[in-house]
Amino acid sequence: MSLYTNQAVKTHYLEPSLHNSSRGSEFRIKHKGKILPNLRLIDVGYQQTGATTASYNQLGGVKSMIKNIHLYDGKTSLSSLLEAPQYQAFKIFNQDVSKNKSLEQRLNQSNNVIVGANEETNGDIMTLFQDNRTQSQQALADTGKGWVDLRDYFPILKVLNHLDTENMFNNLRIVIEYELDSDLVVDRDDRSGTAVSPRLVVDVIEDGSNVAPNPEAVSWFEIESDTFNAAATAGAQTVNQRINGFSNKSVGRMVMVKKCSDLTSYIDTNAVLGVGALGSVAQQDEKLQFTVNGVQRFPRDGLNSKGNRGLAMLVDLWGDCSSFPFGSVPNIQNVGEAGSVVEDMLGQLSYIPYDNSGERIKSLEVNYKRTGNNNAGAPRYVNNKALEVRIYGEVSKTINMKGNSYNIVYN
Predict the structure, then answer these.
(1) Distance between CA atoms of 11 and 5, rounded to whole angstroms?
(2) What percent of the chain has pLDDT over 90?
(3) pTM of the model
(4) Is the terminal CB of the chain with fewer CB neighbours within 10 Å at N or C?
(5) Is the dihedral of CA 147, 152, 158, 163 positive or negative?
(6) How much helix, strand and coil, in percent to the nearest 5, is found in the chain?
Protein backbone atom coordinates (compact mmCIF):
# COMPACT_ATOMS: atom_id res chain seq x y z
CA MET A 1 0.00 0.00 0.00
CA SER A 2 1.23 3.47 -0.83
CA LEU A 3 2.69 5.51 2.00
CA TYR A 4 0.48 8.36 0.83
CA THR A 5 -2.64 6.17 0.73
CA ASN A 6 -2.35 5.07 4.36
CA GLN A 7 -1.51 8.64 5.44
CA ALA A 8 1.93 7.69 6.75
CA VAL A 9 3.54 10.73 5.12
CA LYS A 10 3.30 14.34 6.21
CA THR A 11 4.40 17.11 3.87
CA HIS A 12 6.47 19.98 5.27
CA TYR A 13 7.08 23.34 3.56
CA LEU A 14 10.42 24.81 4.63
CA GLU A 15 11.52 28.41 4.30
CA PRO A 16 15.22 28.91 3.53
CA SER A 17 17.50 29.18 6.54
CA LEU A 18 19.44 31.81 4.57
CA HIS A 19 18.29 33.76 1.54
CA ASN A 20 20.07 36.50 -0.36
CA SER A 21 17.90 37.52 -3.30
CA SER A 22 20.98 38.58 -5.28
CA ARG A 23 23.15 35.56 -4.56
CA GLY A 24 21.62 32.33 -3.24
CA SER A 25 19.63 30.34 -0.72
CA GLU A 26 20.34 27.61 1.82
CA PHE A 27 17.93 25.10 3.32
CA ARG A 28 18.68 23.08 6.45
CA ILE A 29 16.53 20.01 7.05
CA LYS A 30 16.17 19.77 10.83
CA HIS A 31 13.67 16.91 10.98
CA LYS A 32 15.09 13.76 12.61
CA GLY A 33 13.73 10.58 11.11
CA LYS A 34 13.16 9.24 7.62
CA ILE A 35 12.18 11.42 4.68
CA LEU A 36 11.36 10.53 1.10
CA PRO A 37 13.96 11.49 -1.53
CA ASN A 38 11.45 13.37 -3.72
CA LEU A 39 12.63 16.78 -2.54
CA ARG A 40 11.34 19.69 -4.60
CA LEU A 41 11.42 23.46 -4.70
CA ILE A 42 8.36 25.65 -5.20
CA ASP A 43 8.00 29.40 -5.75
CA VAL A 44 11.21 29.55 -7.78
CA GLY A 45 11.02 32.83 -9.65
CA TYR A 46 12.67 35.99 -10.97
CA GLN A 47 11.20 39.26 -9.68
CA GLN A 48 11.99 42.23 -11.89
CA THR A 49 13.10 45.45 -10.26
CA GLY A 50 11.34 47.66 -12.83
CA ALA A 51 7.72 47.98 -13.85
CA THR A 52 8.17 45.79 -16.91
CA THR A 53 7.45 42.23 -17.95
CA ALA A 54 9.45 39.56 -19.71
CA SER A 55 9.12 35.86 -20.37
CA TYR A 56 11.49 33.29 -18.92
CA ASN A 57 14.04 31.72 -21.26
CA GLN A 58 12.08 29.54 -23.66
CA LEU A 59 14.24 26.50 -23.07
CA GLY A 60 15.28 26.79 -19.42
CA GLY A 61 12.27 28.40 -17.77
CA VAL A 62 12.88 29.09 -14.08
CA LYS A 63 15.60 26.42 -14.09
CA SER A 64 17.81 28.95 -15.87
CA MET A 65 18.13 30.69 -12.48
CA ILE A 66 19.87 27.81 -10.68
CA LYS A 67 23.53 28.16 -11.61
CA ASN A 68 25.13 25.80 -9.06
CA ILE A 69 23.39 23.60 -6.52
CA HIS A 70 24.72 21.29 -3.80
CA LEU A 71 23.30 18.65 -1.46
CA TYR A 72 25.44 18.45 1.68
CA ASP A 73 25.47 16.40 4.84
CA GLY A 74 27.27 18.87 7.05
CA LYS A 75 30.42 19.60 5.04
CA THR A 76 30.25 16.36 3.02
CA SER A 77 29.02 16.75 -0.56
CA LEU A 78 26.46 14.06 -1.39
CA SER A 79 25.57 15.35 -4.84
CA SER A 80 25.89 18.54 -6.86
CA LEU A 81 25.41 20.05 -10.28
CA LEU A 82 27.67 22.89 -11.43
CA GLU A 83 26.96 25.12 -14.44
CA ALA A 84 23.46 23.71 -14.28
CA PRO A 85 21.41 25.95 -16.65
CA GLN A 86 22.78 24.60 -19.94
CA TYR A 87 22.46 20.99 -18.82
CA GLN A 88 18.93 21.43 -17.47
CA ALA A 89 17.96 23.22 -20.68
CA PHE A 90 19.33 20.28 -22.63
CA LYS A 91 17.32 17.85 -20.49
CA ILE A 92 14.13 19.84 -21.14
CA PHE A 93 14.88 19.61 -24.86
CA ASN A 94 15.59 15.90 -24.27
CA GLN A 95 11.91 15.08 -23.63
CA ASP A 96 8.95 14.39 -25.88
CA VAL A 97 6.61 17.22 -26.81
CA SER A 98 3.70 15.95 -24.69
CA LYS A 99 5.76 16.05 -21.47
CA ASN A 100 7.13 19.48 -22.26
CA LYS A 101 3.68 20.83 -23.03
CA SER A 102 1.83 19.13 -20.18
CA LEU A 103 4.45 19.45 -17.42
CA GLU A 104 7.49 21.63 -18.06
CA GLN A 105 5.60 24.48 -19.66
CA ARG A 106 3.16 24.66 -16.74
CA LEU A 107 5.47 23.85 -13.83
CA ASN A 108 8.73 25.39 -15.05
CA GLN A 109 7.54 28.32 -17.22
CA SER A 110 9.58 27.04 -20.17
CA ASN A 111 8.22 27.12 -23.72
CA ASN A 112 10.09 24.62 -25.87
CA VAL A 113 6.85 23.43 -27.43
CA ILE A 114 6.23 24.23 -31.08
CA VAL A 115 2.72 23.55 -32.36
CA GLY A 116 1.73 23.53 -36.03
CA ALA A 117 -1.53 24.57 -37.69
CA ASN A 118 -2.63 25.39 -41.22
CA GLU A 119 -2.98 29.09 -41.88
CA GLU A 120 -6.47 30.04 -43.01
CA THR A 121 -5.37 32.21 -45.93
CA ASN A 122 -3.24 29.52 -47.46
CA GLY A 123 -3.90 25.88 -46.62
CA ASP A 124 -0.51 24.83 -47.98
CA ILE A 125 1.50 26.81 -45.41
CA MET A 126 2.13 25.49 -41.92
CA THR A 127 2.23 28.14 -39.22
CA LEU A 128 4.14 27.39 -36.01
CA PHE A 129 3.13 28.90 -32.69
CA GLN A 130 3.71 28.59 -28.95
CA ASP A 131 1.38 28.75 -25.97
CA ASN A 132 1.67 31.63 -23.51
CA ARG A 133 2.81 31.17 -19.91
CA THR A 134 3.17 33.34 -16.80
CA GLN A 135 5.78 36.08 -17.19
CA SER A 136 8.32 37.56 -14.81
CA GLN A 137 6.98 40.80 -13.35
CA GLN A 138 7.72 43.43 -10.70
CA ALA A 139 4.94 42.53 -8.25
CA LEU A 140 5.78 39.43 -6.20
CA ALA A 141 2.22 38.14 -6.37
CA ASP A 142 2.12 38.45 -10.17
CA THR A 143 5.55 37.24 -11.24
CA GLY A 144 5.71 33.75 -12.72
CA LYS A 145 7.06 31.07 -10.42
CA GLY A 146 8.03 27.46 -10.98
CA TRP A 147 8.28 24.00 -9.43
CA VAL A 148 11.62 22.13 -9.54
CA ASP A 149 12.17 18.43 -8.84
CA LEU A 150 15.56 18.21 -7.11
CA ARG A 151 16.05 14.65 -8.33
CA ASP A 152 16.85 16.30 -11.67
CA TYR A 153 19.86 17.90 -9.97
CA PHE A 154 20.80 15.26 -7.37
CA PRO A 155 20.62 11.82 -9.05
CA ILE A 156 21.63 10.15 -5.75
CA LEU A 157 18.03 10.82 -4.69
CA LYS A 158 16.82 8.49 -7.46
CA VAL A 159 18.61 5.44 -6.00
CA LEU A 160 17.84 5.82 -2.28
CA ASN A 161 14.58 4.52 -0.76
CA HIS A 162 14.70 7.22 1.89
CA LEU A 163 17.04 9.62 3.68
CA ASP A 164 17.63 8.75 7.33
CA THR A 165 18.25 12.15 8.92
CA GLU A 166 18.49 10.73 12.43
CA ASN A 167 21.10 7.98 12.15
CA MET A 168 23.05 8.69 8.95
CA PHE A 169 22.51 12.02 7.19
CA ASN A 170 22.35 14.14 10.33
CA ASN A 171 22.85 17.61 8.85
CA LEU A 172 21.25 17.75 5.42
CA ARG A 173 21.70 21.09 3.65
CA ILE A 174 20.80 22.32 0.18
CA VAL A 175 22.81 25.28 -1.09
CA ILE A 176 21.72 27.17 -4.22
CA GLU A 177 23.73 29.76 -6.14
CA TYR A 178 21.60 31.85 -8.51
CA GLU A 179 22.17 33.04 -12.05
CA LEU A 180 20.56 36.50 -12.27
CA ASP A 181 21.87 38.01 -15.52
CA SER A 182 18.62 38.89 -17.22
CA ASP A 183 19.75 37.80 -20.69
CA LEU A 184 20.27 34.28 -19.29
CA VAL A 185 17.05 34.15 -17.27
CA VAL A 186 14.46 36.02 -19.34
CA ASP A 187 14.13 37.05 -22.97
CA ARG A 188 15.53 40.58 -22.50
CA ASP A 189 18.95 41.88 -21.44
CA ASP A 190 17.51 45.02 -19.80
CA ARG A 191 15.25 43.45 -17.17
CA SER A 192 17.28 43.32 -13.97
CA GLY A 193 15.82 41.38 -11.09
CA THR A 194 16.28 39.24 -8.00
CA ALA A 195 15.42 35.73 -6.89
CA VAL A 196 12.11 35.11 -5.18
CA SER A 197 12.58 33.26 -1.88
CA PRO A 198 11.72 29.64 -2.74
CA ARG A 199 10.38 26.96 -0.41
CA LEU A 200 11.57 23.38 -0.01
CA VAL A 201 8.92 20.66 0.09
CA VAL A 202 9.85 17.62 2.19
CA ASP A 203 7.76 14.46 2.68
CA VAL A 204 8.35 13.05 6.15
CA ILE A 205 7.59 9.39 6.87
CA GLU A 206 5.76 9.53 10.18
CA ASP A 207 6.37 5.89 11.12
CA GLY A 208 9.68 4.74 9.68
CA SER A 209 9.73 1.35 11.42
CA ASN A 210 8.28 -0.48 8.43
CA VAL A 211 10.18 1.36 5.72
CA ALA A 212 12.38 -0.83 3.52
CA PRO A 213 16.05 -0.23 4.33
CA ASN A 214 18.45 1.22 1.80
CA PRO A 215 20.83 -1.26 0.17
CA GLU A 216 24.33 -1.34 1.62
CA ALA A 217 25.67 0.08 -1.63
CA VAL A 218 24.00 1.94 -4.48
CA SER A 219 25.48 3.53 -7.59
CA TRP A 220 24.34 6.38 -9.79
CA PHE A 221 25.56 8.72 -12.52
CA GLU A 222 26.52 12.18 -11.29
CA ILE A 223 26.63 14.92 -13.95
CA GLU A 224 30.03 16.61 -14.18
CA SER A 225 31.51 18.84 -16.88
CA ASP A 226 34.59 20.47 -18.34
CA THR A 227 35.16 23.07 -21.06
CA PHE A 228 37.39 24.13 -23.91
CA ASN A 229 37.35 27.21 -26.12
CA ALA A 230 37.37 27.77 -29.86
CA ALA A 231 38.57 31.18 -31.05
CA ALA A 232 36.62 33.25 -33.58
CA THR A 233 37.40 32.14 -37.12
CA ALA A 234 36.77 33.31 -40.67
CA GLY A 235 37.47 29.93 -42.23
CA ALA A 236 38.41 26.32 -41.48
CA GLN A 237 39.37 25.73 -37.87
CA THR A 238 40.75 22.78 -35.90
CA VAL A 239 40.92 22.76 -32.09
CA ASN A 240 42.89 20.09 -30.25
CA GLN A 241 42.30 20.07 -26.51
CA ARG A 242 43.06 17.74 -23.62
CA ILE A 243 40.11 17.46 -21.20
CA ASN A 244 41.07 16.71 -17.59
CA GLY A 245 37.70 16.95 -15.83
CA PHE A 246 36.87 13.27 -16.35
CA SER A 247 40.30 11.79 -15.61
CA ASN A 248 40.31 8.61 -13.49
CA LYS A 249 36.50 8.43 -13.59
CA SER A 250 34.15 5.89 -15.16
CA VAL A 251 32.00 7.83 -17.62
CA GLY A 252 28.82 6.89 -19.48
CA ARG A 253 26.95 9.13 -21.89
CA MET A 254 28.30 12.56 -22.76
CA VAL A 255 26.92 15.57 -24.60
CA MET A 256 28.73 18.57 -26.04
CA VAL A 257 27.05 21.97 -25.73
CA LYS A 258 28.32 25.02 -27.65
CA LYS A 259 27.62 28.65 -26.86
CA CYS A 260 29.05 31.94 -28.09
CA SER A 261 31.63 33.31 -25.66
CA ASP A 262 30.32 36.83 -26.30
CA LEU A 263 26.75 36.70 -24.98
CA THR A 264 25.83 39.86 -26.91
CA SER A 265 25.84 37.61 -29.98
CA TYR A 266 22.38 36.52 -28.87
CA ILE A 267 21.01 40.06 -28.42
CA ASP A 268 19.15 42.16 -30.97
CA THR A 269 18.04 45.54 -29.57
CA ASN A 270 17.81 44.18 -26.02
CA ALA A 271 15.81 41.13 -27.09
CA VAL A 272 17.31 37.66 -26.55
CA LEU A 273 17.17 35.76 -29.82
CA GLY A 274 15.48 32.39 -29.43
CA VAL A 275 16.81 30.38 -26.49
CA GLY A 276 19.97 32.51 -26.26
CA ALA A 277 23.01 31.09 -24.51
CA LEU A 278 21.09 28.17 -23.02
CA GLY A 279 20.99 26.33 -26.33
CA SER A 280 23.79 24.84 -28.41
CA VAL A 281 24.64 26.72 -31.60
CA ALA A 282 25.02 24.74 -34.85
CA GLN A 283 28.28 25.23 -36.71
CA GLN A 284 29.19 24.72 -40.35
CA ASP A 285 31.15 21.58 -41.34
CA GLU A 286 31.40 20.32 -37.76
CA LYS A 287 33.42 17.20 -37.03
CA LEU A 288 34.38 15.72 -33.70
CA GLN A 289 36.95 13.10 -32.76
CA PHE A 290 37.33 11.79 -29.20
CA THR A 291 40.55 10.02 -28.32
CA VAL A 292 40.02 8.11 -25.08
CA ASN A 293 42.97 6.34 -23.46
CA GLY A 294 44.93 6.73 -26.67
CA VAL A 295 42.25 5.23 -28.95
CA GLN A 296 40.19 7.22 -31.45
CA ARG A 297 36.50 6.48 -30.86
CA PHE A 298 34.97 7.57 -34.16
CA PRO A 299 35.87 6.09 -37.56
CA ARG A 300 37.94 7.92 -40.16
CA ASP A 301 38.33 11.64 -39.45
CA GLY A 302 35.56 11.90 -36.89
CA LEU A 303 31.85 12.26 -36.19
CA ASN A 304 30.10 14.34 -38.83
CA SER A 305 26.98 15.97 -37.35
CA LYS A 306 25.99 17.71 -40.59
CA GLY A 307 22.31 18.50 -40.99
CA ASN A 308 20.11 16.34 -38.79
CA ARG A 309 22.68 13.57 -38.29
CA GLY A 310 23.65 14.95 -34.90
CA LEU A 311 19.99 15.08 -33.85
CA ALA A 312 19.44 11.49 -35.00
CA MET A 313 22.47 10.32 -33.01
CA LEU A 314 21.30 12.31 -30.01
CA VAL A 315 17.89 10.62 -30.06
CA ASP A 316 19.49 7.19 -30.45
CA LEU A 317 21.65 7.75 -27.37
CA TRP A 318 19.68 10.07 -25.08
CA GLY A 319 16.08 9.47 -26.17
CA ASP A 320 13.24 11.64 -27.48
CA CYS A 321 13.79 15.35 -28.10
CA SER A 322 11.36 18.23 -28.61
CA SER A 323 12.84 19.55 -31.83
CA PHE A 324 11.39 21.38 -34.81
CA PRO A 325 12.38 22.05 -38.45
CA PHE A 326 15.95 23.43 -38.79
CA GLY A 327 16.49 23.59 -35.02
CA SER A 328 19.86 21.86 -35.35
CA VAL A 329 20.94 23.07 -38.80
CA PRO A 330 23.26 26.08 -39.36
CA ASN A 331 22.90 28.89 -41.90
CA ILE A 332 19.13 28.67 -42.43
CA GLN A 333 17.49 31.93 -43.54
CA ASN A 334 14.29 33.19 -45.12
CA VAL A 335 12.00 30.46 -43.85
CA GLY A 336 8.93 32.62 -44.40
CA GLU A 337 5.61 32.19 -42.64
CA ALA A 338 6.33 28.64 -41.57
CA GLY A 339 9.08 29.84 -39.28
CA SER A 340 7.55 33.02 -37.93
CA VAL A 341 7.78 31.85 -34.30
CA VAL A 342 10.94 29.75 -34.43
CA GLU A 343 13.00 31.98 -36.72
CA ASP A 344 15.24 33.11 -33.88
CA MET A 345 15.71 29.52 -32.70
CA LEU A 346 17.03 28.15 -35.98
CA GLY A 347 20.33 26.36 -35.47
CA GLN A 348 20.25 26.89 -31.69
CA LEU A 349 19.62 23.28 -30.64
CA SER A 350 22.60 21.38 -32.05
CA TYR A 351 24.06 18.94 -29.51
CA ILE A 352 26.83 16.42 -30.17
CA PRO A 353 26.48 13.11 -28.24
CA TYR A 354 28.97 10.39 -27.33
CA ASP A 355 28.72 7.18 -25.30
CA ASN A 356 31.79 6.17 -23.32
CA SER A 357 29.92 3.07 -22.07
CA GLY A 358 31.12 3.36 -18.48
CA GLU A 359 34.80 2.97 -19.33
CA ARG A 360 37.32 4.57 -16.97
CA ILE A 361 38.97 7.57 -18.62
CA LYS A 362 42.69 7.92 -18.09
CA SER A 363 43.09 10.50 -20.84
CA LEU A 364 40.62 12.34 -23.06
CA GLU A 365 41.57 14.44 -26.07
CA VAL A 366 39.13 16.34 -28.25
CA ASN A 367 39.68 17.19 -31.92
CA TYR A 368 36.97 19.64 -33.00
CA LYS A 369 36.61 21.11 -36.50
CA ARG A 370 34.31 23.73 -37.98
CA THR A 371 34.25 26.39 -40.71
CA GLY A 372 33.53 29.99 -39.73
CA ASN A 373 30.84 31.59 -41.85
CA ASN A 374 29.80 35.22 -41.36
CA ASN A 375 26.40 35.36 -43.01
CA ALA A 376 25.06 38.88 -43.31
CA GLY A 377 21.59 39.60 -42.02
CA ALA A 378 21.21 39.24 -38.26
CA PRO A 379 23.22 38.02 -35.26
CA ARG A 380 21.24 34.77 -35.14
CA TYR A 381 22.83 33.59 -38.39
CA VAL A 382 26.44 34.33 -37.52
CA ASN A 383 28.48 31.22 -36.68
CA ASN A 384 32.04 32.45 -36.87
CA LYS A 385 32.08 33.60 -33.25
CA ALA A 386 34.39 32.43 -30.47
CA LEU A 387 32.83 29.47 -28.67
CA GLU A 388 32.81 28.12 -25.14
CA VAL A 389 32.24 24.39 -25.50
CA ARG A 390 31.12 22.49 -22.40
CA ILE A 391 31.10 18.71 -22.21
CA TYR A 392 28.70 17.18 -19.70
CA GLY A 393 29.19 13.55 -18.76
CA GLU A 394 27.59 10.88 -16.60
CA VAL A 395 30.19 9.99 -13.95
CA SER A 396 29.67 6.77 -11.98
CA LYS A 397 29.69 7.06 -8.17
CA THR A 398 28.76 4.70 -5.32
CA ILE A 399 27.68 5.28 -1.74
CA ASN A 400 28.55 2.50 0.71
CA MET A 401 26.44 2.46 3.87
CA LYS A 402 27.08 0.41 6.99
CA GLY A 403 25.56 1.00 10.37
CA ASN A 404 25.33 4.74 10.86
CA SER A 405 28.20 5.66 8.56
CA TYR A 406 28.79 5.93 4.82
CA ASN A 407 31.39 6.86 2.24
CA ILE A 408 31.08 8.01 -1.35
CA VAL A 409 33.58 6.94 -3.99
CA TYR A 410 34.12 7.29 -7.73
CA ASN A 411 33.85 3.95 -9.51
Answers:
(1) 13
(2) 64
(3) 0.92
(4) N
(5) negative
(6) 15, 45, 40
